[in-house]
Amino acid sequence: MQKVRVLDYPVEKPLTLRERIVDFVKDAVISGRLRPGERVPEQEIADNLGISRTPIREAFRQLESEGFITVTPRKGAVVSPITDKDVSEFYSIKSLLEGYAAKTACKKLTEKELKKLETLNASMKKCAERNDVKGFFKLDAQFHDTFLKSCGNDKLKGLIHHLVQQFERFRITAMSLPGRMQDSVKQHDEITEAFKKGDESMVESL
Hints:
Layout: E1 2-6, E2 9-13, H1 17-31, H2 42-49, H3 54-65, E3 69-72, E4 76-79, H4 84-105, H5 111-129, H6 133-150, H7 154-166, H8 168-175, H9 180-197, H10 200-205
Antiparallel strand pairs: 1-2, 3-4
């Protein structure tokens, strides 16, 4: 559920039909119920959610832009494959872009933002202890968003967000591997310490 703030009180904003469909398909892909190359059953989704096909097509456009599916006219949608080459290229580009963003943000982060990074990583550690992958993933996104916003480069932030969205299902699957979340917590500790020291070279390399 998304949250908006009214007079500083959090209020739950109901998901739109499109958002419900996007979440429904993403969950099916990430969980493996829908596999790469498999057709996404438009009619079955409509029946399960009790809706028409119009919002489904709107959701499919978003899912295609995020790299989850490929839509072919008159043939429908299939789950997009991810190759080893795709994964290798993703991490190479992500490390370069995020490294530059972290270096740029290093001297701009406020004490409040540094504290936020520590708090988020402490919460991530708790998620790792109870094997809460989805909760961990959301906190990880907030951690990275904190310094991406501080770098002050909106175009760079947009590029990284788009890239990360395209590989969301792979990253969640990878995070489910034994010890992966714990390793990530340690790395985020190192990143936070480097930020606190103002060590631009260190944050860029991490």
